Structure formats: C-alpha cells, structure tokens
Amino acid sequence: MKKADRLFVYISFLLLLTVSVFGDGLPMTEPGAVGLSTERLSRIDKVMEAHVAQQKIAGGVTLLARHGKIAHLGTYGMMDVEAGKPMTPDTIFRIASMTKPITSVAVMMLYEEGHFRLNEPVSKFIPAFKEMLVLPPEDAEDSAQPVPATRQITIWNLLTHTAGLTYHWNDRLGPKYADAGITHGLLQDESTLAEKMNMLATIPLLHQPDAEFEYGLSIDVLGYLVEVVSEMSLDTFFSERIFKPLGMNDTHFFIPEAKRERIATVYERTKDGPITRKPPEPTVEGSLTYSTDYPYNGPRTYFSGGGGLVSTAPDYVRFAQMMLNGGELDGVRLLSRKTVELMTLDHFADRDIDFGLGLGFSVVRDASDLKEVGSIGTFGWGGFFYTNFFIDPQERMVGIFLCQLHPSGGLDIGERIRILCYQAIAD
Fold this sequence. Notes:
Elements lengths: L2 H17 L18 H16 L5 E8 L2 E12 L4 E2 L6 E2 L5 H13 L20 E2 L12 E2 L6 H5 L14 H6 L13 H8 L17 H13 L3 H13 L20 E2 L7 E2 L5 E3 L2 E3 L19 E2 L1 H12 L3 E2 L2 E2 L3 H7 L12 E2 L4 E2 L15 E5 L3 E6 L4 E6 L10 H11 L4
Antiparallel strand pairs: 1-2, 1-18, 2-3, 4-11, 5-6, 7-8, 9-10, 12-13, 14-15, 15-16, 16-17, 17-18
Helix pairs in contact: 2-11, 3-7
C-alpha cells in the first residue's frame, strides 16, 4: 500500500475510533500527548515498509498505546498478496498462543469467585487426571515403561506449564499425541475439549508434575476446566464474560461468515528467502500437523484454550489495557488488582529457564533479562503465526505486532518493532 493510501486508512480509522471508543480499540491521540515522538515513531513505518518491499513479510499491523490511548496504529503491505488486498486496521489474525493469556484470565476469574484454590488437584474437576503415568528419563534402564506420578497435577502446575504435558513437536510424546488424535488448536477437529482432554489424560506425562517447565497443552486443559466449573462452553464463557464486556467484537474461535474476507493469509519463508503463500493443504512437521484454514473451514466444536483464537490489534489492545489497568477497563472489572499482580509476578525464580514466567505471561525479571531496551516487570506473550505483544507497567505502554508467517526463516522484525516502540519515548 502506498504511503498516502495508508495515511488515508489511518485517518479514517482515527475518525471511527473517535466516534466509537468502546467497541473499537482505545481512544486515539497524538503521540506527543502521551510522551511519544511522532518523528521517532515513523521509524516503525520505515522498518515495516522495508520488510514488505524485500518480501520478508506480506504485511502486518503494529500498534502502540500509552496511558490508555493509541498513539500509533500502522498498517503495511497486503493481507493477501495474490488477491491484491491491502492490510487494514481491522484485519483479523490467527493469534494462536496469544489465546493463552485470555484463558488464564478466565481461570483466574473463576478463582476469584471461590470455585477452587490454585494448589488444588485439577482431578477434583476432571477426574481423568487423578492417576497419571510418567515417562521415565530417557537414560533410564527402561525408558519406555511409564511409572506412576508421585503427585497430582495442580491448577498451578497447568498455569505455569509444570504439569508434565508437552506439544506434538516433542520426540517422545508427539507421536503418541498424534496417534490418539490429540489436537493443539491449529487444525480442524470434530471433537470437543471434553473428549480430547479426557483422552489426553490416558497418555503418560513427559516428567513428574512440578518437576520442570515444559511448554505444552496445559492451557487447553485449563480451557476444559473453565467449561466444567462455569457450565458453559469455552467459546460462550469468553464471549459472555470477557469479549462482550471488553468490547472485543472481532475476537472469535471461528470467524463469522460476514468477516471471512478480513482474515490475513499465512505465508512462509525459508532463511534469507522471499515469502511464499502457505499451501491450503495441512502442513506436516514431524508429529505436528497444522492448517491455516481452521478458523473458517471444517467443524466448529473444538475450542482450544491454548491456541484457537483469531483477533485484531484494536481488539487485543483492549484486553492488554485491562491487564495494564489492574483488571479493569472503561468501568468493567474482570479481575482484582491483587490477582493481576499475582499473574504478572515471576514465579520461576528458582527454576532453570531463561525467562520469567507468571500465570499466562512471560515476565522480564530483572536487569539480567534486559539484553535490549525495555523495563523490568514487562509482561506479554507471542503466537505460532508470528504475532506478539508486550505490556509495560512502568511506562504505561502496550505494544502489539501482528503478522501471518510460519516458518519465519529466522526473521526478527517483531523484536525490532519492540525496540522501535521504546526509542519513541520522549517524555
């Protein structure tokens, strides 16, 4: 998209947001009004436009909000190169694992209502997880013979990925997940969370509960916990308890037909090569199989709490701002300030991993984590199809980067955009 055309889209969207603040993003403002430099923010445009011109990405959307107002909303390139469809502020993206923070918030909302404590076994609500088996270490004499778990999986273990669950790319358990038909949210599935999570409980864990961090299907189990406790489908709980109250009108598990034309196409890139359109057929990478058309083709019964949502930058910034505000936005309170504090603390100070981890978010722990410009206490997450966000309580700032690219071929534009957000601070 030409710069003049993109400026027209930006101004039009600014007018739209001015008229309807609650349902579309946050209020817009001039960068200087919130301590940001207009000139320095233009560096984001230059970097994004260069990546589009060099065919490293098809396009993307970047957003920076400070003090509760959007100071930058950029659209670049195409949502569909072959169809000649330009990226727009309301383009819908597969946010994949950026679903996890939302599911974690849902869990903590039920926690605040007194339904459970975090150290309780999840088997109190999902009995299938009561007596789990665990794979012994790979160097054990009989590494293939599972042994009984020494303790039960707690809700805390699920929130912190210490339950012993993993994802399909794991060499030891990935094939077992695939053989059992366990999905991860990025592929069509005719079943339900109840069916697949109960099946998951029959497969051994990778390690003993609470023994170590392993990124995996824990948040999908939490999605089913939300269903059991609330007596709603996860889709309904999200819609009624989170999306409608926050005005997130374009966030869905499955896209309504009327919005189908707004979803961005997924592209792929090998190292140093140009982008190519992802084929319509499912992609198979070892035991991991995923598709790009799952949000609009096939059955609409499986609601993955770990990776199933699609959303827009204006929608997701409302969720992020709610967290930055301590659980409240525009008079709607989802969580207490103390619960948000708990969720955004580093609970892995005694664990040997290279980042801090809260309940649903990564956390910048201390100065040793600041290899680039940023702030201690910043929290956020990312997604499989090349999306990420950060929330900085010190600077009262939210940054969102949305693209649709997998694999990325080693691209680091998301990290560069974060740096460019910080260098624009001028107060």
